[in-house]
């Protein structure tokens, strides 16, 4: 069972033995220039579920998508992903089923041997996937006896293989989904205090609901990145030509006002690094926040802000971090983000949760990753789960 009142069966408390199982995972990993995987964390994190199912003599059919193909398109084939999974599971044979709807595809699936794992080709090659199409769901459900969701990062999408298929099969949460839901819900529902949230990234518009929700529970909201610029503009600071969503300034003002009422400290940068985002040889210049001129661009938090954020992070007992606090794509402006990451990794008394596609991409020294309690495989899913307390894909497992 998933703890914290979810009432969802998980594979480890259920007798799933000798079955044919659909395993929905999130292997949506960006491919580099030579079509190699940028990072295999999303695959590795599903290995406990796969090994558990194999140990109990189940035949697994893996379903995932890759990127945003409009139709069947070999550039978005799961071949590199299947190949990588094969290298992680040398004792099994990974078979990529090109099209499970064809006669040959059906043949491949019905003749699956014990040591074989079948992976369906990119499920977004079928346009029905995104539409939560009941007929498509039925066709997929016919392939197996059991449905297992281990794709936390996809649970915010009401798509066929997330919410449709579980209507037709006994459904369970995998071990990764269980860990994600339990760790994050625990942190939100009963946070050990002080509870510190660090938010960065570009847009405030995508994070307003989240900030609203977090204000009810967090003690400190440390804000950096492009997000901070909109707040600084709301406090009438000059931010020059920095990234800012001017149409959101009123909402930012309201959030600052609400925070004061709810005794949540929203802490904005007191100094920043300004510069040219395209220049990769000269670092920027540190400015106090009241010294920014009309033509300047804010690209990172400054050292005084790092120190301030750092001292709060050090004392935290619960930490959630989403969003780089600077324009990290240019290494000259990733120092603030690196600092936040180290500060969180250093705090071993806290439950720390880090998530977000760009946030994980921004983390350079991967060796500290295991010092963080939980690296969420979900970016958008993690934020929506914090906002709403559940997700469509999680609800679908309750039926
Ligand atoms: P995540 O994917 O982890 O949820 P977001 O997508 O919200 O993170 O934000 C990441 C983006 O925010 C990055 O492209 C980064 O360059 C941008 N960003 C952060 N700080 C700034 C800044 N000061 N100015 C412009 N862009 C910024
Ligand atoms: Mg992003």
Describe this structure in words.
The chain is of the alpha/beta class and 399 residues long. It has two domains: 174 residues, Phosphoglycerate kinase, N-terminal domain (Rossmann fold, 3-Layer(aba) Sandwich); 157 residues, Phosphoglycerate kinase, N-terminal domain (Rossmann fold, 3-Layer(aba) Sandwich). 34% of the residues lie in helices and 16% in strands. It is built from 15 helices and 15 strands. It has a six-stranded parallel beta sheet, with helices on both faces. Strands 9-8-7-13-14-15 form a six-stranded parallel beta sheet, with helices on both faces. A three-stranded antiparallel beta sheet has the order 11-10-12. Strand 3, helix 4 and strand 4 form a beta-alpha-beta unit. The chain is elongated, with a radius of gyration of 23 Å. The mean pLDDT is 94. Magnesium ion binds next to helix 13.
Topology record:
Elements: E1 20-24, H1 41-44, H2 47-55, E2 59-63, H3 79-88, E3 93-97, H4 103-110, E4 116-120, H5 134-141, E5 146-149, H6 160-164, E6 171-173, H7 175-189, E7 195-199, H8 208-215, E8 220-223, H9 225-234, H10 249-261, E9 265-267, E10 271-274, E11 285-288, E12 298-301, H11 303-315, E13 318-322, H12 335-346, E14 351-354, H13 357-362, E15 374-375, H14 380-388, H15 392-395
Parallel strand pairs: 1-2, 1-5, 2-4, 3-4, 5-6, 7-8, 7-13, 8-9, 13-14, 14-15
Antiparallel strand pairs: 10-11, 10-12
Residues 357-358, 379 line the site of magnesium ion (MG).
């Amino acid at each position: 069972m998933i703890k914290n009142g979810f009432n969802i069966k998980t594979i480890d408390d259920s007798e799933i033995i000798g079955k044919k199982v659909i395993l929905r995972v999130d292997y949506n990993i960006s491919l580099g220039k030579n079509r190699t995987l940028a990072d295999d964390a999303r695959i590795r994190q599903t290995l406990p579920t796969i090994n558990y199912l194999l140990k109990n003599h189940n035949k697994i059919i893996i379903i995932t998508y890759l990127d945003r193909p409009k139709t069947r398109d070999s550039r978005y084939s799961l071949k590199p992903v299947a190949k990588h999974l094969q290298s992680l599971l040398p004792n099994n044979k990974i078979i990529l089923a090109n099209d499970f709807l064809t006669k040959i595809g059906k043949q491949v699936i019905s003749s699956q041997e014990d040591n074989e794992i079948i992976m369906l080709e990119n499920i977004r090659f079928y346009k029905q996937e995104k539409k939560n199409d009941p007929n498509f769901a039925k066709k997929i459900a016919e392939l197996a006896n059991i449905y297992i969701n281990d794709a936390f990062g996809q649970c915010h999408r009401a798509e066929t293989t997330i919410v449709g298929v579980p209507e037709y099969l006994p459904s369970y949460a995998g071990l990764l989904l269980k860990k994600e839901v339990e760790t994050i819900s625990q942190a939100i529902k009963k946070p050990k205090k002080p509870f510190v949230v660090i938010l960065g990234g570009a847009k405030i518009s995508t994070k307003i609901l989240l900030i609203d929700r977090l204000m009810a529970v967090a003690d400190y909201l440390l804000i950096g990145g492009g997000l901070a610029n909109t707040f600084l503009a709301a406090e009438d600071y000059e931010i020059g030509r920095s990234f800012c969503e001017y149409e959101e300034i009123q909402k930012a003002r309201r959030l600052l006002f609400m925070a004061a009422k709810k005794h949540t400290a929203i802490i904005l940068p007191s100094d920043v690094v300004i510069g040219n985002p395209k220049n990769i040889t000269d670092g920027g210049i540190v400015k106090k926040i009241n010294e920014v001129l009309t033509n300047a661009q804010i690209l990172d938090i400054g050292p005084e802000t790092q120190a301030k954020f750092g001292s709060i992070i050090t004392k935290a007992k619960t930490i959630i971090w989403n969003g780089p606090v600077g324009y990290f794509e240019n290494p000259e402006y990733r120092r603030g983000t690196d600092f936040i990451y180290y500060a969180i990794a250093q705090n071993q008394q806290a439950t720390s949760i880090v998530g977000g596609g760009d946030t994980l991409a921004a983390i350079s020294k991967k060796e500290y990753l295991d010092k963080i309690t939980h690296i969420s495989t979900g970016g958008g899913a993690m934020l929506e789960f914090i906002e709403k307390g559940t997700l469509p894909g999680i609800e679908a497992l309750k039926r």
